[in-house]
Amino acid sequence: MRQTNISVFVPHIGCPHRCTFCDQRTISGEAHAPTPEEVERTLCDQLPSLRARGIKAEIAFFGGSFTGIDRTYMTALLDTANAFVQSAPDVYTGIRCSTRPDLIDDDILDILCSRGMTAVELGAQSMNDEVLKLNERGHSSADVERASSLIKARGLSLGLQMMTGLYGDRPEYCIETARRFISLGADTVRIYPTVILAGTKLGELYKSGEYRTFSEETTVNLCAGLLRMFDEAGIPVIRLGLHASRDVEEKMLGGVYHPALRELCESRIFYEDMLADMQCRGDCRKFIVYTDPSNISKVVGQKKENKVRLHENGFDFIIKTEKGTRLRIENAF
Q: What domain count does the chain have?
């Protein structure tokens, strides 16, 4: 049975900070704080379709710092969601929320756990304290460690979110952030390359020339490496890059934003694996690459980038499909 999220966006009202990069209204596409009655209608409306298609779902409160919103409002939203978890457990399997590391404590977790919470995602963004300070996050890497430990101790799924290319960031800082996420026992990860939006402090720094984020090429190489790290650690990356949004496209000043960013990064991993394999095969320069049909576009690369790059290295290949195979290479005689 497939699994999805039914996302309920609770905007910036729960957050005590305005980080350098933040414009939640543009990122989420939502400005209205939903009432419990509106959440109930949404979940009622989705239920028949999810059930008919055999899809299970977590009810996900995203878009702001959920545990920082008015306590009465938060518990009302949770009670509404939990009622559906209790009445339709064949469809609604639990509740997920995103919040800040410094807005998690035992009292908050008592409330969340008593109302059916199954997963908490922390917007850590970086585990480098200087990057956190420069981007006015208002929390430290120690706060991420403390909150993660509290969440794991309650038996909740821990999600950690990171950004790449923030003000003051370096690729090696991002790699260290990934290492620390792994050591904290993250169950899921989201990776968001920085998108610079008008109306934010990063936007002003970018327009003044004081700040430049990573290039797309650097980002693709970096995120391909991060995907590989998390995959080897058995941690799913459940999102890479912002969702496609007209609002983001209209307000974007710079940064890395691509509707198929994850595929670009996964394609880069295929390229690296093919190049390493081909370079170990002596004088052979022509190969047969076997892969599952679902991987063909990633093997070839966007605009045939992988074929071009390998040709520039003196290698050529043809593709043959082999169901269930990620990558298998044979010499072509």
A: 2
102: Cβ contacts below 8 Å, ≥ 6 apart: 138, 139, 143, 147
pLDDT, tens digit (0-9, with 9 covering 90-100), for 58-100: 999 998 799 999 999 999 999 999 999 999 999 999 999 999 9
- Identify whether residues 252 and 113 lie together within a single domain: yes
Alpha helices by DSSP H, the chain: 24-28, 36-53, 71-87, 106-114, 129-134, 141-153, 171-183, 201-208, 216-232, 246-251, 261-279, 296-300, 305-312
Instruction: Single out the residue in 259, 279, 312 at which a domain terminates.
Output: 259
Residues 296 and 198 in one domain: no
Enter the DSSP assignment of 305: H
Q: Tens digit of pLDDT for each residue in 179-216?
A: 999 999 999 999 999 999 999 999 999 999 999 999 99
Is 242 in contact with 14 (CB distance < 8 Å)? no
Q: Nearest CA to 22 among 102, 133, 136?
A: 136
In this structure, are 172 and 279 located in the same domain?
no
Structure pTM? 0.93
